[in-house]
Amino acid sequence: MLLTPAQLESLRGKLIVSAQAYPGEPMRLPQTMAQVAASAVIGGAAAVRVQGLADIQFTRSAVEVPVIGLFKDGHEGVFITPTVHHALAVAQAGAHIVALDGTRRERPDGLSLEQTVRAVHERSGALVMADCGSLSDALAAAEAGADLIGTTLAGYTGERAKTDGPDLELIGQIAAAGLDRPLVAEGRIHTPAQARAAVDAGAFAVVVGTAITHPATIASWFGDALAAD
User: Fold this and answer.
1) What DSSP character marks residue 96?
2) CA 9, chain centre distance (Å)
3) CB atoms within 10 A of CB 23
4) Organism's domain of life (predicted)?
5) Cβ 94 vs Cβ 126: under 8 Å
6) What is the pLDDT of residues 55-103, one digit of tens each?
7) Could you tell me the pTM of the whole model?
8) Collapsing DSSP states into helix, strand and coil, what is residue 201?
9) Are 17 and 48 in contact (CB under 8 A)?
């Protein structure tokens, strides 16, 4: 099922929940991630973001909201849905939106971001969310044809300092650029107040992951607070 313009517009001002677990963790099972995603929808998530082909397939069966899918290959450099092969596999697994590295860095398969986006559009019909790390990334991703622009990689590519919370300055810069496509704030959004601030800064929608779906990290926040002198 392809995502209609009306369905995409319905995400404006809404929460998107990222349900992901790291390799080796007890929750690192596709069925579990689909259940977590479904629970987030009950709580008000208008869309979900999941990693891995099996996770996408199980989640598509578990929820009736748009699914943003990605495939992580490694953990350094360009590793978020890094090639056309990965992107098409994510779309084939059922993702309405394929999230991929939207930076200006060289891609492992040697193709440009524009070529990758075009392949997804022409061969699957899925939309593309470009995970960017800077204003220059966002401008280039929009020029390449990406349907949504994300701030997912802000603070992780060396172009911008890693902020404690969301990079509100970058969100504001991209919003002011008038790219005429949804700007999705993602990255280090840990509180409702930060989510609200991201929308106020110009974000179309907000992705929250760790603070909602990663119990190990959430528990550590409380444990560290109690252990502090």
Assistant:
1) S
2) 17
3) 7
4) Bacteria
5) no
6) 999 999 999 999 999 999 999 999 999 999 999 999 999 999 999 999 9
7) 0.97
8) coil
9) yes
Residue identified by tokens 């697994």 is 93
Using alpha carbons, select from 130, 131, 55 the residue that is nearest to residue 90.
Answer: 55
Strand bridging mode 205-208 / 15-19: parallel
Strand partners, 67: 48
Residue 131 phi, psi (nearest 5): -80, 110
* Average pLDDT score over residue span 138-147: 98
Q: To which residue do tokens 């929820």 refer?
A: 63
> pLDDT class for 3, splitting at 50, 70, 90?
very high
* Dist. CA 72–CA 87, nearest whole Å: 11
Which pair of structure tokens corresponds to residue 198? Answer: 């991201």
57-62: which pairs have CB atoms within 8 A and are 24 or more residues apart? 57/30, 57/93, 57/94, 58/30, 58/31, 58/33, 58/34, 59/19, 59/33, 59/34, 60/93, 60/94, 60/95, 61/34, 62/34, 62/35, 62/37, 62/38
The one-letter code for the residue type at 150 is G
* Type of residue numbered 131: D
Hey, what are 224's tokens?
A: 């560290």
